[in-house]
Amino acid sequence: MEEWEVQHRIRAVLRGEPERFTPIVEDFTPALFNFAAKMAGRRDDAGEIVQETFFRAYRDLAKFDGRTRFLSWLFGICANICYDHGKKRRRQSRTVPVDSVREDALSDPASPASDRIMAGQDERRLLECLSGLPVALRAAVLLRYHEDMTLAEVALRLRIGLSAAKMRIHRGLDLLRACMERAGGEVEEAKV
Length: 192
Prior knowledge:
Helix content is 69%, strand content 0%. By secondary structure, the protein is mainly α. Helix 2 (22-40) packs across helix 3.
């Protein structure tokens, strides 16, 4: 959905047409679900997190000022809910369940079986290392590289300064790289 259409729908909702919010939910749910699953480390929790994200977004819709894309604003809300969710789950294991690994890496018939297995193992290691990052660093790295946000957007969404966003991304990548090296995998060099 184009940003102008999102803005139009938001204005309609604020004028008293709540049904105009439904297409926004339908359009942005997949992106938020993937983000929440990676942030929470469990796909099982992502649906609840996304539902809470849309609830809060709808409740606070008048606070959206339009300085960033609406999806970026939603990612910020989702990241905050993931922070809260992570605090509740600290007692539990920080490993990523196998079912959260994308199956497309293993199901591509064009690549040899050994390549598909290696790709699946590398992705599994990456997801495990990512889930082991502190939540603040994980959010910054995911927003920057998975959601392809600019540094300024990351800073705005996480309500931190630009230098703090750069530092979180840099530290997150360093920890991710170290974890992957210990696990026998590699992390591609990223430019911050």
